Amino acid sequence: MEQIFGIDWAHIPETINPVLVSFGQFKIYWYGLMYPLAFLTAFSIAIYRIRSEKLIFKESTVLDFLIWAIVMLVIGARIGHVISSDISYYLSNPFSIIMPFDFSGGFHYTGILGMSYHGGMLGIVLAYIVFCHKRKINHWQFADMGVPGIPAGYTFGRLGNFINGELYGKATDLPWGMYFPADPANQLRHPTQLYEALFEGVVLFIILWWLRKKKWFNGLTLSIYFIGYGIVRFLNEFLREPSPMSEHKYLGFMNLAQLMSVLMIIGGIILVMFRKDKPYLPITREENNE
After folding, report:
1. I need a surface site. Which of 64, 88, 140, 250 has the fewest CB within 10 A?
2. How many Å apart are CA 274 and CA 268, to the nearest integer?
3. What are phi and psi of 130, to 5 degrees?
4. Contact 127, 50 (CB under 8 A)
5. Residue pLDDT, tens place only, 166-197
6. How far is CA 132 from the centre of its chain?
7. pTM of the model
8. Which stretch of DSSP H or E encloses residue 8?
9. Long-range interactions of 243-250: CB distance < 8 A, separation 24+
10. Residue 77's CB: how many other CB atoms inside 10 A?
11. Checking DSSP bridges between strand 107-109 and strand 26-29, what pairing results, if any?
């Protein structure tokens, strides 16, 4: 797969500039905009559903939760990364934990580099539980409303990793392998960031979008999201280039991300078993008025 529509596929990462715009020494990186784009996408999908499907939730409620989710995702994802990577470095350089700027060679806005998905997920789950409790919202119905937009937003995070040329996969001789500038061996690699963007993002979004109107039980999309993401992430880790945080093996073959993914799968299955016989509570205004 050397040429696709006249594009040299294998060398695409080498042609991408991770800097979106620069003004002298001040630079803004594409990666720094991916989280705002992800939240905007998930928020827009939720608002679209409220308006087009006449859901019972107010748009202001979604906006309020978005603020909670942003704060807790960043905190959880950052703590997860710090704990699972070089914690001694961060203890010696505590400001680097929260600093979204790089001052080496100028003033660069990079965003907060180094975010753990599973840590971020735990942060959002905590925000979700507390928010629904304080607002007296049925959290299963709230999940039915918001979860389908999550993988669509998540896609941007993995595209950000691809643009940065990070988190690439192991060496491969498959025709869609790519060269990444940060690879010291300069070998064709699995573009694992694109695998995740496609399957954990686009494909999972399509599945949840199809399931969103199924009235099997409240919490359906949440449970399928946990199971679907967990399966794809677990498998993708076998192709990703090992990092220091993946050196320790659980049960002899799983790294930390795979262990967390297995727990997500189990959690999703438990949700299905726990919720499948519960009466369905409608989330549209028309259904509630019948």
Report:
1. 88
2. 10
3. -65, -40
4. no
5. 889 999 999 999 999 999 999 999 999 999 99
6. 22
7. 0.84
8. strand 7-8
9. 243/85, 244/85, 244/86, 245/84, 245/85
10. 24
11. parallel
Q: Where are the beta strands (DSSP E) in 17-173?
A: 19-23, 26-29, 101-102, 107-109
Total domains in the chain come to 1
Bridge pairing between strands 19-23 and 26-29: antiparallel
Provide the residue count of the chain.
Answer: 290
Residue 4 lies in a domain: no
pLDDT digits over 23-61, tens only?
766 778 888 788 889 999 999 999 999 999 999 999 999
- Whether residue 2 is contained in a domain is answered as no
Residue with tokens 């409790």: 133
| Residue 233 maps to a domain | yes
**Six token digits for residue 235:** 């498998």
Residues whose CB falls within 8 Å of the CB of residue 160, separated by 6 or more in sequence, listed in order: 30, 31, 33, 34, 35
> Rounded distance, CA 24 to CA 27, Å?
8
H/E element holding 226?
A: helix 220-236
Longest Cα pair distance anywhere in the chain, in angstroms? 65
**Alpha carbon distance, N-terminus to C-terminus of the chain:** 56
Q: Which residues contact 237 (CB under 8 A, 6 or more apart)?
A: 246, 255, 257, 258, 261
The tens digit of pLDDT for each residue in 120-136 reads: 888 888 999 999 999 99
Tokens 């016989």, located at residue: 277
Parent domain of 194: 9-284
In a domain, 104, yes or no: yes
Tokens of 234: 């677990």
- Which tokens sit at 82? 């710090």
Distance CA 202, CA 215 (A): 23
Buried b or exposed e, range 51-73, using 16+ CB within 10 angstroms? eeeebbbeeebbeebbebbbebb
